[in-house]
Amino acid sequence: MISLYKEGNTHIIRGVSCELKQFNVNDLEHALSLGYKTSPSDLYKPTKEEADTNGTGKLSTAEIRAAAKLAGIDNYAKKRISTLLSELGYEN
């Protein structure tokens, strides 16, 4: 058995709110295809306040891309800022 993690609110592990589920090792690839991760830290998304590194209260393009990179969002360097804001869960 292996523990895998997905976005959710049933558990808080290492400060990350997530769903925890046990899978048979043989089902690992299928579980990963369903969005489960091998570590809760893979689900971490910095808060808007954490992303505001210059303290202005308004996120710059560089701050948004840095937060997206930290959150592990694919293609963060090429995606539109509005898409990244949405994926990060920040208000536009």
How does this model look, in words?
It is a single chain. The chain has 92 residues and is of the alpha+beta class. Helix content is 30%, strand content 22%. It has a two-stranded antiparallel sheet with strand order 1-2. α3 (61-70) crosses α4 (81-88).
Principal-axis shape equals elongated
Structural class: alpha+beta
Major β-sheet, in short?
2 strands, antiparallel
The residue-averaged pLDDT reads: 89
Give me the number of helical elements: 4
As a percent range, the share of strand residues is: 15-25%
Q: Mind telling me the C-alpha Rg?
A: 15 Å
Strand order of the largest sheet: 1-2
Number of strands: 2
Helical residue percent band: 25-40%
Distance linking N and C termini = 41 Å
Order of H and E elements? EEHHHH
Quick structural overview:
The chain is an alpha+beta fold and 92 residues long. It contains 4 helices and 2 strands.
Give structural attributes.
92 residues, alpha+beta, two-stranded antiparallel ribbon, 4 helices, 2 strands, 22% strand, elongated
Topology, pairings included?
Blueprint: E1 2-13, E2 16-23, H1 28-33, H2 48-51, H3 61-70, H4 81-88
Antiparallel strand pairs: 1-2
Helix pairs in contact: 3-4
